[in-house]
Amino acid sequence: MAEPILKWVGGKRQLLQELRAHFPISYEEYHEPFIGGGAVFFEMEPTEGSINDLNRRLITFYEVIRDYPEDLIEENQRHRYEEGYYYDARDRFNELHQLEERSIEQEIEEASLMLYLNRTGYNGLYRVNQSNEFNVPFGTHRNPDFVRERQIRKASAVLEHIEIYNRDFSYLKDRAAEGDLVYFDPPYEPVSQTADFTEYQSEGFNKDDQRRLRDLAEQLSNTGVNVVISNSPPVWELYQDIDEFDVSTVGASRMINSDPDNRDDVAEVIITNVAKEDQQQQDLGNYV
Ligand SMILES: C[S@@+](CC[C@H](N)C(=O)[O-])C[C@H]1O[C@@H](n2cnc3c(N)ncnc32)[C@H](O)[C@@H]1O
Fold first, then answer.
1. What is the tens place of the pLDDT at every residue in 126-160?
2. Domain-located, residue 228
3. Which domain holds residue 109?
4. Do the domain assignments include residue 204?
5. With contact defined as beta carbons under 8 Å apart, do 86 and 138 qualify?
6. I need a surface site. Which of 88, 126, 233, 281 has the fewest CB within 10 A?
7. What's the CATH number where 114 sits?
8. Ligand 1: which of 34, 208, 263 to mutate, most ligand atoms within 8 Å of CB?
9. pLDDT tens-digit readout, 102-124
10. Could you tell me if 96 and 28 lie in one domain?
């Protein structure tokens, strides 16, 4: 099984088994339009399909992994885990982002800095200011691994035949076809007014985006696409009147008990149009 290369807010590692239980036993292509750290994608190891994210640095990172894994590994070996070096690397990362056109070498450099900053910055956060400048401070880690040779080679092989986009999730309207599986893991609707879920992108993802996603999910469902969505409980009401979608709650107490410090430990909902008898949970016994 391939592993995610980056740490990413909203990572789905703990929910993998529950999510997979709702996936159909068989499908054609696999699409993940909010790829983030890609925990589910790398677990699935699909051979055909697409990934996407609005975050351009993240998408450059995956393109470089797919197309130039050895150059990336070589570049990663140049970095040092030192505070002064970290802040110079952060400046360079922001400088590269400002360039209108970049050479392949500059994209490889940016991808390598993305990984370095993710492994050595505070808490593995990705956070940017209004001008899209990455502003996470230096973090304390024991032997941070920013080379990740084995993981990069494995991920590169998985990505070999996968299309990579840097668009709004709505590209799927024209890309997903009957029999495909789409897994949507959007930025979550905040559970409370005070919850801060805006760190994904400075633009955020608002209620209208949640409704656009619901409309697209319904449209895809009508054309025979298998749809699975994870989100936080408040979005349940957006789907309650659509007959073909079932909503179940997962995650809550078990995650809270096993890791009290985990900030992702809110209950989640899984929304799907995959009929119970076609779901993998039939194969996994009564795991869920
Ligand atoms: C919850 S995270 C995905 C987490 C991922 N499943 C993982 O395991 O790491 C949501 C992602 O959606 C991206 N995003 C936000 N708005 C978007 C949009 N309109 N279209 C596509 N991607 C978007 C963010 O950049 C972020 O990476």
1. 999 999 999 999 999 999 999 999 999 999 999 99
2. yes
3. 56-137
4. yes
5. yes
6. 88
7. 1.10.1020.10
8. 34
9. 999 999 999 999 999 999 999 99
10. no
286 Cα to the center of ligand 1, angstroms: 30
172 and 265 in one domain?
Answer: yes
Q: 108 in a domain, yes or no? A: yes
| CA 263 remoteness from chain centre | 17
Q: Residue 252: which pLDDT band, with cuts at 50, 70 and 90?
A: low
Would you say residue 260 has pLDDT above 60?
A: no
Task: Output phi, psi for 82, to 5 deg.
Answer: -145, 145
> Quick one: which of 283, 184, 280, 250 has its CA closest to 14?
250
Given CA atoms 226, 232, 236, 238 in this order, what sign does their dihedral have?
negative
Please check whether residue 283 lies inside any domain of the structure.
Answer: yes
Same domain, yes or no: 174 and 115: no
Q: In terms of domains, do 132 and 274 share one? A: no
* Total domains, the chain: 2
Quote the percentage of the chain above a pLDDT of 90.
78
Pocket lined around ligand 1, Cβ cut-off 6 Å:
8, 10-12, 33-34, 36-37, 39-40, 52-55, 168-169, 185-187, 200-201, 205, 209
Backbone angles phi, psi at 46, to 5 degrees: -70, 155
Q: pLDDT tens across 6-31, in order?
A: 999 887 877 888 999 999 999 999 99
